[in-house]
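stuck on this:

***
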Amino acid sequence: MRTTLDIEEDVLLAVKELARHEKTTAGKVISRLARQGLNGGTDKPRKMEYRNGIPILPSRGRIITNELIDRIREEEGI
């Protein structure tokens, strides 16, 4: 699919260098890197797990408590 993106120059230069090294196109490199970023570092799509109809998000190594939520709400003025 074709689209127009505003990509910072240093990123575009790095992508073009990767594409040259891999003998592929910049578009394919960007798609692969974006997919890896969206799937937690892998090319394979992440299969979402659900509990009671709600998706279970991956752990980020931090326990979310009510106290933490209250502090964030206070900081954000919510």
Notes: The helical segments are 9-22, 26-38, 66-76. The longest strand covers residues 49-51. The first helix runs from residue 9 to 22.
